[in-house]
Amino acid sequence: MFQINENYQKLPGSYLFSTIAKKVAAFTEANPGKDIIRLGIGDVTQPLAPAVIEAMHKAVDEMGKAETFHGYAPDLGYDFLRDAIVENDYKSRGCDISADEIFVSDGAKSDSANIQEIFGPKNRIAVCDPVYPVYVDSNVMSGRTGVYDARSETWSDVIYMPCTMENGFVPEFPKETPDMIYLCLPNNPTGTTITKAQLQEWVDYANKSGAVIIYDGAYEAYISESDVAHSIYECEGAKTCAIELKSFSKNAGFTGVRLGYAVVPKDLKCGDVSLHGMWTRRHGTKFNGAPYIVQRAGEATYSPQGKAQLKEQVAYYMKNASMIKSGLQEAGYTVFGGVNAPYIWLKTPDKMTSWEFFDYLLHNANVVGTPGSGFGPSGEGYFRLTAFGSYENTLGALERIRKL
Ligand SMILES: *Cc1c(COP(=O)(O)O)cnc(C)c1O
User: Fold this and answer.
1) Ligand 1 centroid distance, CA of 133 (Å)
2) Ligand 1, from 17, 41, 110, 250: best to mutate by most atoms within 8 Å of Cβ?
3) How far apart are CA 123 and CA 192, in angstroms?
4) Atom of ligand 1 nearest to the CA of 187
5) Cis omega before residue 178 (within 30°)?
6) pLDDT at residue 140, rounded to an integer
């Protein structure tokens, strides 16, 4: 008789987005004529940039001819893409990362979930609270998180670093020493970030304590302030303690196209074992490469036209962000984020819980957002709105909220 991986049984249901969907469906059924504006789920809405479309069309045509057909891609990615990544995302920022330290993938969700595989089962992980759920859940699946306590909504073996308005959403060094530290900066869900100097302190802390930092930089393209690092490798010593994960989903609208990459520096070692070698082995065994057409699309994001078009796309979303932020502030809300990330994190008014505010907003403004408590216990009393909607919908939602 086969057995299952019992760790999966420990996972508490992820009710967040299904509960939201159910509540919205119930409301729509009871109020058929009402037009609902959704600023909940973190998915982009703008079409792919023309330079990207052009590159994809060309690659499709190549696939249709024997002379230019491409079969399996190299496991770690085509050189044309890895070279473009190094040039634009690292060399241009003074980071000494080489093309063979780039591992092209199908996105940062899979990378952030898979990376724990190359670490020992007894490693203690540290995460920010609130947090992107993938980091914790992937460690639950591999048995690294201990026992779940439903009352506190925490795992016994996970180290939580609360990020709230009290500490300005800057994670503090935990009392217990972690082995693996997950940092997502700029942050989803809070939309906040930390300065390069503050990130340097984390790099120093990791090097000193022998921890590894898993650095999720999915929102790097949204950084607008000059004292914020675009890569953790801008910090001195990061190559001996950090893995960086990047995605084309949010900067280029690739959520449905699928492309990302991980950086595992050769200097990152445990004793004399190179993590670069381990991730190469893992990739070679379990991944058969991102599609040629998609890698050509990724390359196009770095062309002069691609860059200019994507800058405009990011600016479009960030205009929404600043409109939501200033509009809510004028209406008396306490708001965070929206400067270096396309998320607005607001304090719920009148001591409402996150879910009470969700219902209030849905019923009175017909606007859907995401309850902060869904991202972790320290998210209680907060609420997330995304800037990924259209300008018209964002403006409409804001007008409704301001009339409340
Ligand atoms: C959207 C997002 C990603 C990107 O995931 P993909 O799989 O590349 O689409 C990664 N991390 C965080 C925190 C995100 O919000």
Assistant:
1) 11
2) 250
3) 28
4) 13
5) no
6) 97
H helices within 210-269, ranges in order? 249-252
Query: Residue 157: which residues within 8 A CB-CB, separation 6 or more?
Result: 124, 144, 145, 146, 147
- pTM of the full structure: 0.97
Ligand 1: atom nearest CA of 247 is: 8
Q: How far apart are CA 282 and CA 76, in angstroms?
A: 11
**Which residues does ligand 1 sit against, CB inside 6 Å?**
42, 107-109, 132, 184, 188, 216, 218, 247, 249-250, 255, 260
Ligand 1 center from residue 30 Cα (angstroms): 34
At position 268, the amino acid (one-letter code) is L
Report the pLDDT value the prediction gives residue 41, as an integer from 0 to 100: 84
pLDDT in tens, 237-271: 999 999 999 999 999 999 999 999 999 999 999 99
Q: Is 146 left (phi over 0), alpha (psi -120 to 50) or beta?
A: left
Average pLDDT, the chain: 97
Residue 133 Rama label (left phi>0; alpha psi -120 to 50; beta): alpha
